[in-house]
Design a protein that fits this description.
There is one protein chain. The chain is an all-alpha fold. The protein has a domain at 20-75: F1F0 ATP synthase subunit C (F1FO ATP Synthase). The chain is 85% helix and 0% strand. Helix 1 (2-40) packs antiparallel against helix 2. The longest helix is centred in the first third of the chain and has 39 residues, at 2-40.
C-alpha cells in the first residue's frame, strides 16, 4: 500500500514538472516568433499581440489541467483502495 502511494506522488511530480517545462518552452518559442514577426511587419503588431495572448492562455490552460489531474491523484486517488 505504501509503495502505491509513493508511485502516485512520483507520478504527480512528473506530471507537474513535465507540464511546466512544456508550457515554458512553448511560451518561450511563441514569444520569440512574435518578436520576429513584429520586427518584420510592425504594422501587424496589434493583431499578432492579441493572437499571442490567446495562445499563451491556451498553453497555460493545458498546464493547469495537468496540475488539476495531479491534484486529483494526490488527494482523491481512484487507484488506491481504502
Amino acid at each position: 500500500m505504501e509503495n502505491i502511494l509513493g508511485f502516485v506522488a512520483l507520478a504527480c511530480g512528473i506530471i507537474v514538472g513535465l507540464g511546466a517545462v512544456g508550457a515554458s518552452i512553448g511560451i518561450g518559442l511563441m514569444g520569440g516568433k512574435y518578436l520576429e514577426a513584429s520586427a518584420r511587419q510592425p504594422e501587424l503588431m496589434n493583431e499578432l499581440q492579441a493572437k499571442m495572448f490567446v495562445l499563451a492562455g491556451l498553453i497555460d490552460a493545458a498546464f493547469l489541467i495537468g496540475v488539476a489531474i495531479a491534484l486529483l491523484f494526490a488527494f482523491a486517488n481512484p487507484f488506491v483502495l481504502r
